[in-house]
Amino acid sequence: EYRVKVFDYISxxxxxxxxxxxxxxxxNVTPFYVEKVxxxxxxxxxxxxxxxxxxxxxxxxxxNNDSCNLSEIAKLxxxxxxxxxxxxxxKFFKVSPKKDLEHYKKHKQxxxxxx
Length: 115
What we know:
Blueprint: H1 2-13, H2 20-27, H3 31-42, H4 46-63, H5 70-76, H6 82-93, H7 97-107
Helix pairs in contact: 2-3, 5-6
């Protein structure tokens, strides 16, 4: 079924250069259909879902890596540069990734989990 295939594709490719139109074209469906599937499985729009998946993936990487390079993590999560990652992370968690990581290293808990 297309819904499951679209969901699986998004789940496996969110860190790549993925667009609503690109996913629709890949499965020969409309962007509206992809948006509908995304909202059904993730409860958010396509683009908000991609940002959320990337940011949570970044946080997982931050907690699993003792020698974190935030610029490298940003790129591995699909961001072109640290600036875009910084803006998305700060908007999502209301704290900068650097400050969140420093708190995690000290307390083994992310600061933004309190906010």
